Amino acid sequence: MVESNRGRIAAFALDHRLPAMGEFKPMAELGGLISYGPNQVAMWGRTAFYVDKTLKNANPANLPVERPAKFELTINLRTAKALGFDISSNLLSLADELID
């Protein structure tokens, strides 16, 4: 439910001067302040591995559970400015992407 409404959630938060944080990059792209979480595209790519193994008759219960290999920090500077937040240069230097 959150995924399909993240644009509305980000807009609501910004309208009410609340910082919104999401797990995936699109939250920050749609107006949330920050997102930090696994790279969705990389996760979808790994899904193909499991589909392939399952279609080749592997027992899903015997397949390994994987953790995400890469996490991304995205900061929306427009939202930070609109909310009156000063993001520390330390945090900015850690970001994978800054949205102006």
- Report the average pLDDT across residues: 93
Largest sheet: 4 strands, mixed
Oligomer: single chain
**Shape, please?**
elongated
Amount of beta strand: 15-25%
Q: Please state the CA-atom Rg, rounded to the nearest Å.
A: 17 Å
**Computed structural class:** alpha/beta
Succession of helices and strands: HEHEHEHHE
Termini separation (Å)? 28 Å
Ranges with pLDDT <50 over ≥5 residues?
A: none
The percent of residues in helical segments reads: 40-55%
Strand order of the largest sheet: 1-2-3-4
What's the total number of strands? 4
Count the helices. How many?
Answer: 5
- Count of structural domains: 1
Task: Describe the protein.
The chain has helices at residues 6-15, 25-29, 40-55, 77-83, 89-94; strands spanning 21-22, 34-38, 71-76, 97-99. It is an alpha/beta fold and 100 residues long. The protein has one domain (3-99). The chain has a 4-stranded mixed beta sheet. The longest helix has 16 residues, at 40-55. The radius of gyration is 17 Å and the shape is elongated. The model has no long low-confidence stretch (mean pLDDT 93).
